[in-house]
Amino acid sequence: MADIAKGVRSFTIGTAISRVLGLVREQVFAYLFGAGTSTDAFNAAFRIPNLLRDLFAENALSAAFVPVLTDQKKKGREAENVFASNILNTLLLVVGAVSLAGIFLSPWLARFIVSGFQDVPGKIALTGNLTAILFPFLLLIALAAWAMGVLNTEGAFFIPSLAPALFNVFSILVPLALFAYYTGKGGDPIYGMAIGVTVGGLMQLLVQVPLLHRKGFRYRFCLSFKSPEFHQAMALFVPVAIGLSGSRINVFVNTLLISRLEERSMTWLNYAFRIQHLPLGLFGIAVGTVALPALSRFVAEGRTGEVRTMLFDSLKMVLFLTLPTSALIAFLANPITSVIYEHGRFRPEDTIPVAQILVLYMIGVPFISALRNVAAVFYASKDARAPMFASFASVGVNIVLNLALMRVLGYRAFPLSATIAAVVNILILFLILPKKIGAFDQKPLLKYAGLMSAASLLCGGAAAALFFGLRSIAGRSFFVDLSGVVLCGSAGLLIFYALCRVMGLDEVRSYVKRFARFR
Question: Among 429, 426, 428, which residue's Cα sits nearest to residue 381?
Fold first, then answer.
């Protein structure tokens, strides 16, 4: 069986650079703007094009594009180039039209989606203006996701995973460069953030273009909605898009509800969400992204046993990567939030709600990560209906829980509901998984997950005890918190490894060796 560890390692290294820069971007954002009216407006405006992002980029596009492109690759380079060009031209036509419509309709979209902002003068108008600047990002990120799909099919994972780093670099440099300009003109410098995001999206696309050429892609002027390959892709894309439309409806409803909570709630949720995406992107998304082309190949060749073996290997791997990191971030949520954000206009009173939200988000990271890998089996099998129905069920659970809990828990209801919804989603897919890969014994996997969870909780608790012991001796300062998080987090990982070995989890030693092997 192919070892996906090398691809995961390449993807993780590239993503690590990007995610670290993403946190730097959020630090700059927090330093310059803190949490208030402008940051709420920007985060709401960014959510509006992002409502369509998963449909036209990343998740839906990868699920529909990569399996069919893998089939075309076996027919030869020309067939692969024609199909890839057809999808590219379709994206330019369809997503380009949607982006233009979004720019012109942005004032009305803002009034509709964040109507709760109307109590603050000028907040909805600012959201609409920012939305118009941000909508071209939708087209650029869709094209960047297309490029990533082509390169992943060719076995290239590092550059596509590194590409978002360019997005983050320009999302940092542009607002820094424009801050003084807008301030001097008496305008709101938050506009610099919106311009930086759009420029960053362009760079995320352009950095992948040279590698596309080296891997053999040659553009063909082809736009056919009647080709069998296009129909295959649409047969996958439409159910995935419908399923993701449920999650987008969920985001829409959440945005509408959050806009009615106390000021800064949307900003606090966004800050915590960005930290959550560090382990989710580094490990959860990495394993699922790398596994999808290999699973598609095994399914196409009828190697069901290989599919089953790779799935369980990838699930164990993703739990090995996400459980301890999620536990450590949750137990150290307060100092981590303080170290990353508590500078400039981000005040200590903002740290507490962000840390509380972060803990609830981190509980869901292993489930979301495992979900991506289980769903990959269905997409590789060209079955997007099961994930679609599971998605709708989880969205329903999410919305009902948010409506029921938001008046009791406030902003805390949203990460808690998202975590519970992820559990529901993966349970549904797991129940119908035997129809795709045959009957299997769940007990070894459940035992592995249980022991891994216990080791993770113990390592997180030990790291927190060490940290707060250090703080009681050395006092509280930025450098104490930073060194404490690094040292105590590292000690927690060593404790986790030792506990796994004591518990007889031999896979841990194997994964360490596989990730350390650079040949």
Answer: 429
